[in-house]
Amino acid sequence: MQARHPELLIENCASGAMRMDYAMLSRLHLQSTSDQQNPLLYATISAAAPAAVLPEQAGHWAYPISGTTREEFTLALVNGVLGRLYLSGHLNQMTAAELELVRSALAAHRDLLRELDSLVPIWPLGLPEWDDEWVVLGLTGPESTYLALWHRSAGPAEVTIAGPPGDIRPVFPAEADGWSYTWEGDKLTVRTDVAEPSARVILSKRFDLG
């Protein structure tokens, strides 16, 4: 089939990743990482998945729901950006502002896809626990690191992570919107002043590489 249809992508659902292994993934392109629909719970799955499956094969469901707060909507989309984003939800019921957030997430994801298969996963806070307040996944290359940052409680709050200092650029959403980032040596302090769970994707371009 693949020889006849070389552009066809085949996904391994495997009962919501309950039967995920490379006996199948050596033959198929994508792996759905879960059937979980709660965005706060999916954050841990998205962050931990690259320990078991290549990021370029990790299909993460993003379930933005029309009528939720902007932060809830954004967090649901962040879940999919650092993998292979599976978009779900009733797009036909979304407002113009909600659709613009979806477009922004997809644009950020498509930019990442150009280099996804060359990036290596890192966990600056260690592999996430199911009920962690902060969850962080990084995808790093020679010159830059993408970070998905989830804060799963009400803010304000901050966390410090280690890494090579770099120029911080928002990836999704495109504005900082209540989050700030401060380097002190090789320690990055991430702060959110958002008064509900929230998430961001940022890019750190290393200073020492010009």
TrEMBL record:
<dbReference type="InterPro" id="IPR013785">
    <property type="entry name" value="Aldolase_TIM"/>
</dbReference>
<dbReference type="InterPro" id="IPR017853">
    <property type="entry name" value="GH"/>
</dbReference>
<protein>
    <recommendedName>
        <fullName>Alpha-galactosidase</fullName>
    </recommendedName>
</protein>
